[in-house]
Amino acid sequence: MAGLSEENVNWVRVDGAYKRVLSFFENPNRDLMSLDYDFLSVLTKAYADILAFHGVNAKRCEKEAFYSGFLSYTAEVFAEAYHILVEQQTGRIWVYMRLLEDLEKAFRQVEDACIRLHPQYQEL
Question: pTM for the complete prediction?
Answer without folding.
Answer: 0.86
